[in-house]
Amino acid sequence: MRIAICSYSQGVGNGIARMDEYLLQYLDRGTFSVLYVFIDTKKDGLFERVSPGRIHLSLDIALENLPDIFRHVDIIQFNGSYDPVICSAAEIAGKKVVIEVMHNIEPGMMHRNVCHTVCVSRTVQRAQLNASKTSVIYNGVDTQKFVPARIRRYPEKIVVMQPARRDKVMHANLENLAPRIFAHNGNLEFWMVGPGQDTAYGENFSAMKYLGVRADMEELYANADFMLLLSKGDSFGLVAAEAMACGCLPIVSHDGGAAEFVEHLKDGYVVDCSRPEGIVPAILEALNARGEDEVMRLAARRKALDVLDIKNSVWHYEQLYAEIVSKSCAHESCGACLSKELPIMESRMMTLAMYHRQGRSLCELAPFFSKLVLTEQGFDPGRLRHPFWGNVFEIVSSLAHEMVLSGHKDVAFRFYDKLLSSRIIFPFYLQNWLESGPALDARTRIRHALDVLGCG
């Protein structure tokens, strides 16, 4: 059975990338042939076969190259939610079995040829519109790598770590909580770990260590006493599972995926973050029990071995692949696919939006914009109801306005016309278009659309 696992991320500091790597490592190669396709958003014109099982492909040429790659596989898997590039390529290739893995709390199944949604927690599953086409498969931990320390490096201190990127949305951040916690217990050290966590953003606090992105996370967990992550609506919380495998007790928020597998006072702590005034007392309760919580630490390790081990996760994926392929007859083509039905326009617009957000200059983006507007196809408003597209349209419409200001009215006007002809109307681009001096017939259409929106 041949599987293509597609991803936009790789590296040690990313939980999604770790799960992709685990699948590559642990899927039964006697049954499954795995191809990893990394889609690079930072380079152009890249197509590289890194090894027989790895392809690196830049986003700008992905849609042109992926169909040929996909024709040779049975299953296409990507990290959701809506990905018009991968889904378009799969449909062009005539593939029935497209699986999305939802790592965020949002609806999936945003493309017609996605046949199944893997949810990394029940929290994610509850956000899906069709539960009958979903499975819950927890992310997993390599429990042979993430192990408790035989001798802790800092036995004289209680270490609390927060592994999270700097911009993660939190109920409460350790950086802000630490001084208040330290006032009650001066035998503490705090570690901030993850992207952006390499320097203080406020007043420097002596007990706070900024460690940034680390490749030795298992060492940090094994030498910390507690892992604090009070994030808002986390889909799973892989760091909590990794901490448990190392005997480091997790302290997690009540409203995320980690609360599904962390049992309060048994193998960790679950904090009711709906009551902000109770957060610090709840953390202090955990810290004050240090030295009397060895049973909980053993239970955390046991939970990781029994429930959260990566080999359990991979086994569930293997069962899912076999079941879906047997039902879908993946080796058969799904019939003729008319290009006008495929979201080529959306694919190119998403590419443009991603490049614009990365800070590429107008000069660099102009060729991509021209390619977008020269596409004969229009937009499908039915596919663009997903909230994701509101942000994409705002970005690309802002770029179109920049094109007008730089003297490229014709290209921008063709983009505006495609939106309006596709019955996609919103005030921002309509007003910019109207103020830019379009032809008389276009002005009439724009004013009518604005009247419909109540903005005339």
UniProtKB/TrEMBL annotation:
PANTHER family registered for this protein in UniProt: GLYCOSYLTRANSFERASE
CDD domains attached to this UniProt entry: GT4_PimA-like
Protein name: Glycosyltransferase involved in cell wall biosynthesis
Gene3D superfamilies per UniProt: Glycogen Phosphorylase B (3.40.50.2000)
